[in-house]
Design a protein that fits this description.
mainly alpha, binds fe (ii) ion
Length: about 300
């Protein structure tokens, strides 16, 4: 199905889901979550040492990557505005952008007053990343919806797990608040993909296969991204097991029910077979990698159960 037709056919569902979003979402104020008193003695001329907030390097990596990902918002907006361009979708795209902007505001203010990251390194990295403007470029409306559904859930999990390992109730509350927004965004896009599967099962399943095959967390333009991503995975804040157990299985298999779709074209049947075997392979590799790590964390297991129950 052509993109213009998909957008038009999905518009009524988008309207219903947008109303649900507005009813479920809560107004919140970034400045109320920030512990301003921590910044009272901040010496901005002194060299940053990290002593004000001692944290493992992996936790600093997670804060750094999570914030810089939120900072790249202009390019995510540019992409959704291009891929989902139509009158019915514009209101949602703008609302989503306004909500997303709060995330970088609250996380940056929290990090700055807590002195959790080197502010000069952070600002230089932000300039570099935003100067590059690298974000995934989905090739169709269905690809775009699948990517953002998976990515919003991945971001929710990453923010929530970062909040848990901060060992700071204030930081936990900041990351949980942001994670709650990401969850509503995820539900919006997840349910639009379900509708797309009804409208055009073959086209949508092929988009799911492409997006699972090529999935990357946003952040390729972040300086030192590979090193930070490896540290984040080793600390089980976001790793392959989480990707498999909390995203691919509950969303692609259980919620979108790709195994039981009927009436697929031959090409879509081949894509589905390849998608299913890829998910199985990812699960096996993830298990092997996790087994090699000492002390698998209970916190991550409980998050897995929570996400499975929610989706
Ligand atoms: Fe966000
Ligand atoms: Fe989001």
């Amino acid at each position: 199905m052509e993109d213009v037709a998909v957008l038009k056919e999905l518009a009524p569902k988008l309207g219903t889901l947008y109303d649900r979003h507005l009813k479920t979402t809560k107004e919140w104020f970034p400045h109320k979550l920030v512990p301003w008193e921590r910044g009272a003695n901040l010496d901005v001329e002194a060299e940053w040492t990290g002593e004000a907030m001692p944290l493992p390097d992996a936790v600093r990596s997670a804060l750094f990557v999570n914030l810089l990902t939120e900072d790249n918002l202009p390019y995510y907006f540019e992409t959704i505005n291009r891929v989902f361009r139509s009158e019915a979708w514009d209101e949602w795209s703008r609302r989503w952008t306004a909500e997303e902007m709060r995330h970088s505001i609250v996380i940056r203010d929290y990090i700055t007053v807590s002195d959790a990251l080197d502010p000069i390194e952070l600002e230089r990295a932000r300039m570099k990343q935003v100067g590059l403007g690298q974000v995934p470029q989905p090739e169709s409306v269905a690809d775009g919806l699948v990517y953002v559904a998976l990515q919003e859930l991945a971001t929710r999990i990453s923010h929530r797990n970062t909040g848990k390992v901060l060992d700071d109730p204030v930081g936990y509350a900041v990351m949980a608040r942001v994670g709650a927004d990401e969850n509503l965004h995820f539900m919006m896009y997840r349910d639009l993909v379900s509708e797309a599967l009804e409208l055009d099962p073959s086209g949508t399943v092929m988009a799911i296969e492409r997006q699972v095959r090529n999935f990357e967390m946003p952040g390729a333009g972040i300086p030192g991204f590979a090193k930070h991503a490896a540290a984040i995975a080793a600390a089980e804040i976001y790793d392959l097991s989480i990707h498999h157990d909390q995203i691919l299985v509950p969303v692609v298999l259980r919620h979108w029910k790709v195994e039981s779709l009927n009436g697929l074209t031959d090409e879509a049947e081949r894509a589905r077979a390849s998608l299913l075997s890829r998910i199985e392979r990812i699960g096996k590799v993830a298990k092997k990698l996790a087994a090699r790590r000492p002390g698998h964390s209970d916190a991550v297991d409980s998050e897995a159960q929570e996400v499975s129950a929610a989706v």
